[in-house]
Design goal:
Layout (H helix, E strand, L loop, with lengths): L7 E5 L5 H12 L3 E6 L3 H13 L4 E5 L5 H12 L4 E7 L14 H29 L2 E6 L2 H5 L5 H21 L4 E8 L5 H4 L3 H9 L9 H12 L10 E4 L6
Helix pairs in contact: 1-9, 3-4, 4-6
Bound molecules: NADP nicotinamide-adenine-dinucleotide phosphate (NAP).
């Protein structure tokens, strides 16, 4: 039996909560076996696995820090290569360490770049080794509207998210000849734990700047990811799909 006879697997980084969790549930409903990572909340990860299984899907959760290069290589060697049919990679894991530039410490900058940008590179590099051999694969990087328009207090996060867009476009050029597509989704402000701590006045100011008049949902983002993973998106690569309610267009 060849790998392509196995159920296609979607690998999602940071699938225990928020956007990644909803992407996991949505791709499971579309028929993918789900592998996802998390780093600090095993109970949330187990809940996501249980919810996917309760809906008739199959999922495994792995505690794996996206920015740990050795751990990422080991994970691919032990759990992915020759074991599953890796069809989709969603680079979703992300953190924030917000503060104004004059107060930003080296550690704040490095932590955000390491998880949000370097982590995506590490997963992409491993996935590409497999997908180019298969001559098929979908890579979807979760960027942000902040990487497109900038945001005061988020120099580290904006740099990482803009970097992901450059990485997406470059990888699309390298991999198109092997039928591997690489796209980014750039969400606007989405209701998750990441935005839950916004002060009420800040939240109101964001909403008033969004033409569609609301924050987005994780499902809004997951539907764009599911589209890019599907056969309907076969001729789309190197693109950034904004899911931002018109906040930046
Ligand atoms: P969230 O609710 O804070 O969830 C983050 C997820 O990433 C969790 O599953 C977390 O795992 C995981 N994670 C964090 N650091 C990790 C690491 N080093 N290695 C592996 N997994 C890690 O965030 P979210 O709002 O869903 O955001 C998901 C992605 O969308 C991020 O890349 C974010 O930048 C992007 N985004 C979000 C918004 C928004 O408004 N929410 C807007 C634009 C873009 P644990 O549960 O173990 O902590």
């Amino acid at each position: 039996m060849s790998m392509s006879d196995l159920t296609p697997t979607a690998l999602i980084t940071g699938g225990s909560r928020g956007i990644g969790r909803t992407v996991a549930l949505t791709l499971a409903a579309a028929g993918y076996q789900i592998y996802f990572t998390y780093v600090s909340r095993p109970e949330a990860a187990q809940q996501t696995v249980a919810d996917i299984e309760a809906a008739g899907g199959s999922a495994r959760a792995f505690c794996l820090d996206s920015g740990d290069s050795e751990a990422v290589s080991r994970f691919f060697a032990e759990e992915i290569k020759g074991k599953v049919h890796l069809s989709v990679l969603v680079n979703n894991a992300g953190i924030t360490r917000d503060t104004l530039v004059l107060r930003m410490k080296d550690e704040d900058f490095d932590a955000v770049i390491n998880t949000n940008l370097r982590g995506a590179f590490l997963f992409l590099r491993e996935a590409v080794k497999i997908m180019t051999r298969q001559r098929a694969g979908r890579i979807i990087n979760i960027s942000s509207v902040v990487g497109q328009m900038g945001n005061a207090g988020q120099i580290n996060y904006a740099a990482a998210k803009a970097g992901l867009i450059g990485m997406t476009k470059s990888a699309a050029k390298e991999l198109g000849s092997r039928s591997v597509t690489v796209n980014a989704v750039a969400p606007g402000f989405i209701e998750t734990d990441m935005t839950a701590s916004l002060a009420e006045d800040v939240r109101k100011a964001y909403v008033s700047a969004i033409p569609l008049g609301r924050l987005g949902s994780a499902q809004d983002v997951a539907d764009a990811v599911a589209f890019l993973a599907s056969d309907k998106a076969a001729y789309i690569t190197g693109q950034v799909i904004a899911v931002n309610g018109g906040l930046y267009c």
